[in-house]
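Quick one before lunch.
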Amino acid sequence: MNIEGIIEKQKDFFHSNQTKDIRYRTQQLKKLRQLLKENEVKLYQAIYTDFGKSMFDTFMTELSLVYHEINEAIKNLKKWSKPKRAASGLFLFPGKSYIIPEPLGTTLIIGAWNYPFQLTLIPAISALAAGNTVLLKPSEIAIDSSKILSHIINLNFPSEYFYVVEGGVEETTTLLNYRFDKIFFTGSSQVGKIIYEAAAKHLTPVTLELGGKSPTFVFADTDIKMTAKRLVWAKFLNAGQTCVAPDYVLVESSIEQSFLQAMKHELEMRFKANALTENYTRIINTRNFDRLLNLIDQSQIFTGGITNRDERYISPTILHRVSFSDNIMKNEIFGPLLPVIPFTNLDDTIAKVKAKPKPLACYIFSKDRKKIIQILTEISFGGGSVNDSVMHLANTKLPFGGVGMSGIGSYHGQAGFNSFSHHKSIYEKPFWFELKLKYAPYTKRKLSLMKWLLK
Ligand code: NAD
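Model of the nicotinamide-adenine-dinucleotide complex:
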């Protein structure tokens, strides 16, 4: 299908005003939910082919989030799209002020491969809920997932409303030549810059959901066993191929050994017997497998380090005796390798974290309010959890996004609706009263009255 033609059709369709109708939007969201339910088996199969990932994990980390987002949007759509009153003040009497959320128009959503359904469908749900048309470009790297998405969407939705374009760099580069009313991108900071630059040519607003090295602080007063349980789950979910995965651990040196032992014990409980079975996800491709292999310094392996290139399998691996200057600390790991760095001085450690680009997430395990507040105040990051990891992402009431190099803007729930809306500010006035003050001829008396009114 000709891309230019589809974009033109989407623009015309948007201008027909059909998507402004809340009932239309609700119907389309219900239709999407129904289609996903009908095709669930195919969706599980595609993720299994791409990642060797279990049905349980796919439901928990992909479909359940998508369903939840659709349900939230359907439930709140009327409320979110209603004009909101704003105070006017004495000078504007007897007028009223209000804000109308309006759709932006034709939107482009570009996804990453690591959660190919939720990273494309959740922004699409927000965009459709807000009354936009959507052109969706999933990552070409999760091959089967991209295929099934385009199959389901393109067969069932009119292309002038919602259409999936498959492809990689070349196709995305072509798409970026066109003028969209919004670009929503999930991916690396490196490609984020390309997207931002292309969008700037048309002054198109962007949301950039990027990555980064998310630190985890573990303090001596933590519940070590529970910390290990929650961290092992969060880090090795999807074999560490999660944008908000704890990238590295900073542990107070007094508990370093007991923490490492607790992590090893937890890993044995979760994965030892079945690491090569379907309970543990594979690395997406050999390019990423090789990249990760290069990050493993054999002398630093505390536990794990078992690999199988044919299976694209890297066992959950914890590295110790790591320092900030090591290779593994340079870029986002995005795989099942967890470096652990001990620390004694918190201020120095915070300074080292702050010397790196602002991360997407940060996690703190401690019972000490002062330390928790110090980190929350001193380190800038997208979002995070205290005494847990990754789970902040699961709350649609929390805007999800990065800051600095980890992103621009946010989504999930109403934040998603807002990021695909323009908030049109209106002041409306009746005819029955007019304050003469602002009109010439200006007098001293008028000026002093004006000063009193506008102080
Ligand atoms: P990526 O940046 O390589 O690719 C993302 C998308 O951009 C893909 O659809 C790809 O086809 C396209 N693309 C790649 N190169 C391009 C180019 N030169 N020009 C135009 N388009 C291009 O990212 P990825 O490898 O798919 O995902 C991994 C990264 O995404 C990690 O950094 C991860 O942290 C981040 N991520 C962030 C979030 C978040 O919500 N903040 C979620 C998932 C992943």
